[in-house]
# Entry
Amino acid sequence: MTNINYEELDKIENKIKNKLPLTIAEANYFLDFVVYTTRCKIVKDFNETFEYKCDLAQSIITYYLKSIGVETFPNATQTAISPNIEGHNFNIVRLNVLDQIKDYIVDATYRQFFLKENCQDSKFIVYNGLVLVSAHPGYFIKKEDYELIEDFLKHGYMEMNEKNAKVYGDSFFQTKTNIPKKDIPTYKLPGTSYIKLFLKGNVSLSKSEEELQTNNLLISLPPKDKPKTL
# Structure
């Protein structure tokens, strides 16, 4: 995201604060800004994998959205879906778009689960038929969903509908350990179930607002420093 239009973002912020509906283009531009700015704050360049940055990204996103009146649901996979799966933090973000409430899965760091070495059979550690270590979520993405996930990895958000919630949710559910490896394909839920679970999200944030402020990690308009071009 280059040549960020802060005047446009200020207009979008004001519409949100005044509970006015956004256009689709405005919603997309706003979420692009949120994800891009967050990524700029958590890594030095975009060649990094975002490993172990999800809780920090979640804190940055949550405090900013709440500061301008955007409803958001901070989630943790092991709380929302099931214990003994890949732990990860993300947000559901609710926006008024064309006078309709739309929810988005916002995950600025999902890319960390798509490293080649962690998305192959050799990653599994199985003992007495039970999975002790699983491959990462990227391993479980089906070929027919590659295009969807490639776009999600790029932008860091996608609308939370039944299909998208299922693809995203199943990718974590199937990392479950202490189960027979042959049972992995059974660990999936309908998209509607993931939506209900994700909308209950209210996990504690790993960082306080004061900590983020001290380290210049809060998002604000106008920005205290413009995001670097990565």
Remarks:
- The CA atoms of residues 78 and 87 lie 6 Å apart.
- The chain is about 35% helix and 15% strand.
- The first strand starts at residue 71 and ends at 76.
- Strands lie at 71-76, 89-97, 100-106, 125-127, 130-133, 157-159.
